[in-house]
Amino acid sequence: MKAFGFLSFGHYGNVRGSTTRTAGDMMHQTIELAEAADEIGVNGAYIRVHHFARQSASPIPLLTAMAARTKHIEVGTGVIDMRYENPLYLAEEAAALDLISGRRIALGISRGSPEPAVRGYEAFGYTGSSDERGADIARDKFELFLQAIDGDKVVEGDPQMVGHGQRLAIEPQSPGLRERIWWGAGSRETAEQTGRLGLNLMSSTLLTEATGQPFHVLQREQIDRFREAYRSAGHAGSPRVSVSRSVFPIMNQQDELYFGLRSRENDDQIGIIDGMRSTFGKTYADSPDRLIEKLRADEAVMAADTLMLTIPNQLGPEYNLHVLESFAKHVAPALGWKPNWEGTVEGYPIS
User: Fold this and answer.
1) Cα–Cα dist 17/21, whole Å
2) Which of 151, 184, 189 has its CA nearest to residue 77?
């Protein structure tokens, strides 16, 4: 592990105990937390994207505001649901965000997780999928998105405007943007596909597989397969890999009440998501010295360059900054962490 950031699901609701009652609260508090995290050296500020739910949905405006108010921290998503996106418009937005931020982005994209709406992407106008989960249209649109950010000429030009036989690329272009695109992989097979494409790998707190292995071992195998596929495809460079975990240093009585009593001895779980038997990672909540010991034993955390800490955003930015500061001061240095002012995070070399 070289870097860590926070991953916010962006929940909001007028419920007891929440400091995040409205969408406006959520957005302003996320920006506030990104600013404060930037100051203490946190490497990344990432938001989850969901539709038809009281969570963060349209990510680019929020990421742009976060980028404009910070200096070093990487801003990104975990993940954008490609089923709901216009690939060319997303390519324009991504390039603009990349330029505004000074190339401090990490856009995680995927087919998307289950949504509360049945085939909700069709309400956005994206029809024609023969897959009940919409994976086919997500793949096709992602391929066009990659072509667009790579500068391919994707449309025929109007002869009266640009002359005969001319094709046009989207604008703006941000050179090297593909290097900052990640695919959210939920299985070992998808991780291999990501490696063959030469993208970065974003692995979540669950895998849509259940082999009987501990979650971190299964996820480490996913990472190894990704890197081998990347190498075998002939890609050069050091691709990034991130994993997500719920990690809470127990520093005081409030931390103990929130997380210690119910999380200290929890285990991996097996469940059904999207119709597939899946393995879910556990929550880590303990004293800093015990967390260091447990995270060093987590093979996937130590194999990845970036650890995303999922945060309880409805507890507010002040409490979540306390969690990040506690991790930065008392846990992360022992795992190999380098703060954001020491430079851009790079992946581990592919041997």
Assistant:
1) 10
2) 184
Q: Is the pTM of this model over 0.70?
A: yes
CB 34, CB 70: distance < 8 Å? yes
Residue 351 lies in a domain: no
CA distance 182 to 286: 31
Residue 254 lies in a domain: yes
- CATH number of the domain within which 327 lies: 3.20.20.30
β-strands 206-207, 276-280 pairing? antiparallel
Please report whether residue 154 resides in a domain.
Answer: yes
Q: Is the Cβ–Cβ distance between 105 and 180 less than 8 Å?
A: yes
Contacts of 298 (CB under 8 A, 6+ apart): 216, 245
- Expressed as residue numbers, the domain containing 254 is 3-161+169-342
pLDDT in tens, 188-227: 889 999 999 999 999 977 665 656 778 888 889 999 999 9
Return the H-helix or E-strand segment holding 263: helix 261-263
Helix axis angle, 135-149 to 87-101, nearest 10°: 50
